[in-house]
Amino acid sequence: MLMKNQKILIRRTFLQERFDILIKKQRNGNATFNDLTELDDIVNRDPAIRESILEEMQADNHPPHDTGSDKIVINEPVKPQTLIQKIKDFFKNLLSFEAKTSFNPVV
Known about the structure:
4 helices
């Protein structure tokens, strides 16, 4: 007899399964300190898992290069306001607020 919907079996070790569970907990924000300690221990013990983590980190450090979106932003230092400037700004804001909120009835 032939089985039509036969799934391919993937052999995984206990550490690989536990690693996946702990990574999912960490990404969801549900990992406890003990879970993170166990995750660290697994990464330090298993060379295959450690290598996959290092490859993933290497890929994250080198994002694809976008030539069109490179922008240089220069922040200029803000000059402190004088007392007279603060008073002028206060009245300007007060008058603009009153102009926006004044009621103009339609006749």
